Amino acid sequence: MDESVVERSYWALLGVMASSAIFNHVFQKRGISHQRLFFFSHQSSPYRRNPLRSTRRFTQPPPSLGFR
User: Fold this and answer.
1) Domain region containing 9
2) How many domains are contained in the chain?
3) Residue 61: inside a domain, yes or no?
4) Which 3 state secondary structure label does DSSP give 55?
5) Pick from 59, 41, 62: which is nearest to 50 by CA?
6) What is the mean pLDDT of residues 19-31?
7) 35-48: per-residue pLDDT in tens?
8) Model pTM above 0.70
């Protein structure tokens, strides 16, 4: 009884790790390229130094940038 529980938890942990690794691998290319492009486009803006505004920047861009 104990060994089955341990084995089940081990396989569950393994599955979670594998799924997270696959998730990271799938979304890494898009995320990294988008972040890099974003970082270089906003490098000179004052919003880069404020961590609170930088997290909100993805949903609501600052009015000084506009859409180019």
Assistant:
1) 2-56
2) 1
3) no
4) helix
5) 62
6) 72
7) 555 555 555 555 55
8) no
